[in-house]
Amino acid sequence: MSELPIVFTERIRSQFPEVAEAFLQALDRPARSSVRYNAGKPTPVFTEVDAVPWNEQGYWLNQRPVFTLDPLFHAGCYYPQESSSMFLQWVLKQVVPVQKGMKALDLCAAPGGKTLILSDHLKSDGVVVANEVIASRARILREVVTKWGCRNTIVTNGNAQSLGELSGWFDVMLVDAPCSGEGMFRKDQAAREEWTPQSVERCSLRQHEILTDVLPALREGGVLIYSTCTFAPEENERMLGSLIDSGEYESIRFDVPEHWPVDQIRLGDLFACRFMPHRTDGEGFFIGALRKTAPSGSARAKAKAIFKTLDAATRGYLEPWCTQLNHPVLGPDSELYDSPLDLNQLNALAAEVYVLQPAVHLGRTVRTDFIPDHGLAMSGNVNDAIQRVELDGNQAMDYLRGDAIVLADGGFSGWCLATHQGQSLGWIKVIGARINNYYPKEWRVRMR
Fold this sequence. Notes:
Blueprint: H1 6-15, H2 20-26, E1 34-37, E2 49-51, E3 58-61, H3 71-74, E4 78-80, H4 87-95, E5 102-106, H5 113-122, E6 126-131, H6 135-148, E7 153-157, H7 160-164, E8 170-176, H8 189-194, H9 197-214, E9 218-228, H10 237-245, E10 249-251, E11 263-267, E12 270-275, E13 285-292, E14 308-309, H11 312-318, E15 327-330, E16 336-339, H12 343-350, E17 354-357, E18 360-366, E19 369-372, H13 374-378, E20 387-390, H14 393-401, E21 414-420, E22 423-431, E23 434-437
Parallel strand pairs: 5-6, 5-8, 6-7, 8-9, 20-21
Antiparallel strand pairs: 1-3, 1-4, 2-3, 7-17, 9-13, 10-13, 11-12, 12-13, 14-15, 15-16, 16-18, 18-19, 21-22, 22-23
Helix pairs in contact: 1-2, 4-5
């Protein structure tokens, strides 16, 4: 790793004089790898682990495996996630009591780790809109959400200003803002090399612009959770402080056990938390929560029939495949989806931003046949009557690479759900002696 920027080290010595040397030395030591288990797919994966105290499914690993070569990773049984950012679960449990019909926005959602925490928190009682402005990253977000099996999460590709047009629409808003990345200095060489004082200034201006654009979409009484992976006050304390000073937001205090390696920030009316590299096995992280006290305008309804209801015949094709359906719809791409939002709400959202995936992608109809999508396979919503084919480790990796797989004669025919250790991997179709592999081509494993 290259040397830390001199201007950065000087600021840290001024900002944290009592711990600066320990702080800076820690940036030259690697953090431990960590994962978060999927409570909806209970499968023991790792044995040598230590629990992350602020997240019920979070664990530090004693060594980092090659996740790409583990079928259970592709089955969505766990997600490699930085341990400090898992603190979001602790904050949500205290500041966002779940109520039926809640709508949450994860504005800067890719690659998706925090989206999964938010989705798990709301479960079937609420809806998560996971948004990413960069199209290529939005596709990565869709993959992560699909493999986890999120049935309450809609993936969108839009900007903050467009979402801000949905006045008062959201009960919860998570803004994990793009930042100068100082918290990533001990694992990311590029973050060190790209950092300048000017980048901090640019990021703070960008964060202010993002918040100004999107916050009209937060209802009065709604909760904003704001986070970054930097230590710069301009991007953290001062950003939230400016919202409090506006008189339209108030800081929400939450309990943090004193023995946890978490710094609690109390500056006037502001309460927030910070993870420091010399105190935790995670990266740098800042998080705070505010409640909106100002009224919001009413959302302007836009009548655009982008998604449509299904006719009786199409719905009839779906019913043998699914254990239950929320709001099955026909997309503009002629694909079938199951959305947690009703048709009017989904179209109101689609009028403002591009809806990349309105929750579970079910499949499509071709004449009188139904072709199931990978999203249905991963959703945990496949009818028990559908055939399951259990694959061992080698077969599972062949399947994930898109290679031919060989099955023992089990009398299988037609569509089958391929599983590994009981967890869904995707679809195959058995036609006589031929087995067609339907694992998505763009997600195939290329590592050998």
